[in-house]
Specification:
- There is one protein chain.
- The chain is an alpha+beta fold and 171 residues long.
- 13% of the residues lie in helices and 31% in strands.
Length: 171
């Protein structure tokens, strides 16, 4: 009797959770920076290619940080609680398009992952904020300094430099 109950509840649990997607690790197959959409191949068996997933950017208050992905980059995809077809079209809450929940169609790329056996090769101090790639670097240091590096640094607009001690700077 005890074995039958265990089998019953084990089957019930499997049935309830088998089609609930929470998160999956995958590799970028295609990325469109302009539309912020990506095709992602999950690394786990049994998953189809996830097509045209929205890609998270950091935006608000008129500011945006847009990540760029390349084919083969490792990413984390999470799945929303409800169908987001109508919501993602214009950012307004509308009637749901379906009753699906945690579906593969409702995945969002939330960020890149780095394998533990491939440490990040990020120039700069380990306690500073760094944006780097392809020979360019912006580093925000904990002492308040900002360091810019690149093959060419271009500043558009009027340049005003104010030093702490009031000394002029010759550029």
């Amino acid at each position: 009797m005890e074995n039958a109950a265990s089998d019953f509840f084990g089957g019930l649990r499997k049935g309830l959770t088998e089609n609930i997607n929470v998160a999956v690790v995958g590799r970028i197959e295609k990325f469109e920076a302009k539309t912020m959409k990506a095709d992602v191949a999950p690394l786990y068996p049994g998953y189809p290619l996830l097509i045209e997933l929205p890609v998270l950017s950091f935006n608000g208050g008129g500011f945006v940080i847009r990540p760029i992905y390349e084919r083969g980059d490792l990413v984390l995809v999470v799945f929303t609680d409800k169908d987001m077809d109508n919501l993602i079209m214009d950012g307004r809450l509308q009637n749901l398009n379906s009753t699906r929940a945690h579906a593969l169609e409702d995945g969002v790329v939330v960020g890149g992952l780095n394998a533990f056996n491939s440490p990040l090769d990020v120039p700069g101090a380990s306690n500073s904020m760094v944006i780097s790639g392809h020979g360019a670097k912006v580093e925000l240091k904990t002492n308040g300094q900002i360091e810019l590096e690149g093959k060419k640094v271009k500043i558009k607009g009027d340049l005003e430099v104010e030093t702490i001690n009031g000394q002029p700077i010759n550029l």
